[in-house]
Design a protein that fits this description.
The protein has two domains: about 140 residues, Rossmann fold; about 80 residues, DNA polymerase, domain 1 (Orthogonal Bundle). It contains ten helices and eight strands. The strands form two sheets. Strands 5-4-1-6-7-8 form a six-stranded parallel sheet. It has a two-stranded antiparallel sheet with strand order 2-3. Helix 7 links the parallel strand 4 and strand 5. Helix 1 crosses helix 2 and helix 2 packs across helix 4. The longest helix is centred in the N-terminal third of the chain and has 15 residues. The radius of gyration is 18 Å and the shape is globular. It starts with 5 loop residues before the first strand and ends in an 8-residue tail after the last strand.
Length: about 230
């Protein structure tokens, strides 16, 4: 295996703790209105609308829509599910939707990226938009060299076009690029496109009852415990 010239990363769950962070922002919004809804249940339901919303686009049932807008649509569904629609006007919903720009990195991420950045190109390969990834990087101190992912491909992972678009943007062959993710399905898709792969477990991404992605289930090039392992 050759040393990768670039490392591209899944972000939600792999690099940042979306569940704890979104629940925190929801709890703040609920507290201001004396709402007693469980913020973790709210975060889980909101995130649960994520893949079905993207699948309509992947399957050709809808043209490409940035994830910011899908999150906003999914927020309306989530508020309706918890019967919270009367509590939030449009401006308050837009504000709550920015919760996805305020996701805390896992403890190993920032230092690990800095160590790796000294040796190779690093970039997100996320379903998040360029705007979302940029604001999230500013919030969490993620030192990307550039922003790649769904928006440059006008489609969503795990469609092959997303991985190929990232490699093409860097003018690198797929075997010169390593995809890093905490989700085995992401790595299966990247591997099928010819990319190198690295798995890192995030066993509490989905909360204490998580049952999937606790261990690698493919023949990945690397299985790491922390992002800095890639720099070594």
């Amino acid at each position: 295996m050759s040393v990768p010239r670039a490392f591209i990363f899944d972000v939600f769950g792999t690099m940042v703790d979306w569940r704890e962070s979104v629940a925190r922002e929801a709890a703040r919004a609920f507290s201001a209105k004396a709402i007693t809804t469980d913020p973790y249940a709210f975060a889980d339901f909101w995130r649960g609308r994520y893949d079905p919303a993207m699948e309509r686009i992947r399957s050709g049932g809808r043209g490409y829509v940035q994830l910011d807008d899908l999150h906003r649509e999914n927020l309306d569904e989530t508020l309706a599910h918890f019967k919270l629609e009367p509590f939030f006007n449009e401006q308050e919903r837009d504000t709550l939707n920015t919760a996805w720009e305020k996701l805390d990195p896992w403890p190993d991420v920032v230092d690990g990226l800095h160590a790796l950045k000294a040796k190779a190109i690093i970039a997100p390969c996320s379903n998040g938009s360029i705007a979302l990834m940029t604001r999230l990087a500013k919030y969490g101190g993620l030192p990307w060299d550039c922003i790649l992912g769904a928006e440059i491909a006008q489609n969503y992972k795990p469609e092959p076009v997303v991985y190929h678009a990232c490699c093409n943007a860097l003018r690198l062959q797929p075997n010169e690029v390593m995809m890093v993710a905490a989700h085995n399905n992401d790595l299966h898709a990247a591997q099928a496109c010819g990319l190198q792969t690295a798995f890192i477990a995030r066993p509490i991404e989905r909360g204490p009852g998580q049952t999937i992605d606790l261990a690698p289930n493919g023949d990945w090039d690397r299985v790491i415990d922390r992002i800095s392992d890639l720099a070594h």
